Amino acid sequence: MTSVGSETNPAASGPAALHRWLSWRSACVFGRAMRRPVLALGAAMAIFAALMLVKGVNPFAAYRDMFISTFTTTTSLGGIAVRATPLILAGLAVAVPARAGLINVGGEGQLIMGGVAAMGVSLALGGALHGPGALVLMAVAAAAAGALWSGLAALLRLKGGISEAVTTLLLNYIALDFMFFLIYERWKDPQGSGQPATRALDKADRLGLLGGSRVHLGLLIALVAVVVVHLVFQTTSWGFRLRVVGGNPEAARRAGLKVGSLLLTAMLVGGALGGLGGFAQLAGAEFKLRSGFVLGYGYVAYLASWLAGHKPIGVLLSCLLLSGIVIGGDSLQLDSGLPGASVNVLMALLLLGVFGFAKKREAAR
To answer: Which of 66, 172, 257, 297 makes an SS bond possible with 331, Cβ 3.0 to 4.6 Å?
Structure first.
């Protein structure tokens, strides 16, 4: 017989009971965290299946072909990992400010500015430094540029009372225009094919590949960032204070917390992660700045963070899922005869599903 006291206090029954109780609690927390994305994905796929029926496409065959072409070949799996790398870092750029109750829609601009800063360092070095030393300088510059870009939105929020959701979104367009100015004018490769682009990075200044795959070392940077952010959220006083501010800023202020400083640092850290994503995309996949550099990545990363409830491990899984959907979009077009933009419809339905289940949960509280 188990006493009532041992049920409410598992430590009273010894280490074995405590371990079983903690395992059960962890499983429950993980189950609740995964319930929203699973339900949202199921709802989105069901609605998308109905749309395919309207177009005269067998949804079961379409999903089967999409799964086979996306998850059963090493080439597709490598493509998913490469595409997910900047998404993971940009997703964390959303998740960290969200911990403090901030809405960072500026992942796109932070990715771009990170890539611009990294390319600027490479051009400034002019071949004087190559290899790990150059890569470190490029990464540091990219993180600093991303932090500066998000810091502008934070200062406008703190000093002018302007919503960071608006300013981060508008800063995306400024970053894009700034990159266009550089690749069309100042940094355009005179030896190129005439298309607006910078010169390609030297091979010594590119991130190495993992084994014989196409996956580059930027994925390791993204995975380390996920683990670090998770540990910071779970084990540090800064992570706890961010959660307090995100839950009730006024109560946090009355408790003596420096709310303004916490909001600023959350945005700076988020922007730095976004800038690193731009560096990883430049040095690991693109190798040059061009008009399509990280096009749309920041907005997909925003969706990934919301899908994961702004939890770092969930961001990782969401980015892999969304990358798989994008890679699988080729199958929808080639095998099922659907328009190329069909994958965007599926992701939009997924976003609506996430928001719908979030609203339902808030209403139930």
So the answer is: 66
